[in-house]
Write a structure and sequence with these properties.
This is Universal stress protein. Belongs to the universal stress protein A family. InterPro entries: Rossmann-like_a/b/a_fold, Universal_stress_UspA, UspA. The protein has helices at about 20-35, 50-55, 65-85, 100-110, 125-130, 130-140, and strands spanning about 10-15, 40-45, 90-95, 115, 145. With about 150 residues, the protein is of the alpha/beta class. It has one domain: Rossmann fold (3-Layer(aba) Sandwich). The protein has a five-stranded parallel β-sheet, sandwiched between helices. Helix 1 links the parallel strand 1 and strand 2 (about 40-45). Helix 1 (about 20-35) packs across helix 3 and helix 4 (about 100-110) packs parallel to helix 6. The longest helix has 17 residues, at about 20-35. About 45% of the residues are buried.
Length: about 150
């Protein structure tokens, strides 16, 4: 293999909205983090007001209103990640849409890999308007893994 072909992930970000499908992505990311002895950052988006949530209404993500609900979801996801083998786990909540929040966390932690579930990618709305997995894949400067969490 030539230079630059070695894969080494040291910081992995995974998106979680507390849903069952997002916890499957957390589990996969935790296993990858364990294999690479990487730091795992579990990230979520939240809206600061009902008005913000209504303006950004998306079909492919759970609406989280307020930092408190976001942190509760993240603590639960962090426990799930530790049970799946991740040793170094942090949580991060960011205000805004899921795409905005994930991109902010990826940049804040200088992540090497972003892991998201596939929810919304195969829906009509997702095909027409975009979905969180497709949008982050287009915008991210790091590798993106889309985990098959929804059939």
């Amino acid at each position: 293999m030539g230079a630059g072909t070695d894969i080494d992930y040291s910081v992995i970000v995974v998106g979680s909205d507390g849903s069952k499908s997002s916890l499957l992505a957390v589990e996969r990311a935790a296993r990858i983090a364990a294999a690479f002895n990487a730091e795992l950052i579990i990230a979520t988006a939240f809206y600061e007001s009902k008005e913000d949530a209504l303006k950004a209404q998306r079909q492919d993500s759970v609406t989280i209103l307020g930092d408190e609900q976001a942190r509760a979801n993240l603590e639960s996801a962090a426990s799930h990640a530790r049970r799946a083998g991740a040793g170094k786990v942090q949580i991060a909540a960011a205000a805004g849409t899921p795409v905005e929040a994930l991109m902010a966390v990826v940049n804040q932690f200088d992540a090497d890999l972003l892991v998201v579930g596939n929810r919304g990618i195969n829906t009509l709305t997702g095909r027409l308007l975009g979905s969180v997995p497709a949008d982050v894949a287009r915008q991210s400067d790091c590798d993106v893994m889309i985990v098959h969490t929804v059939k």
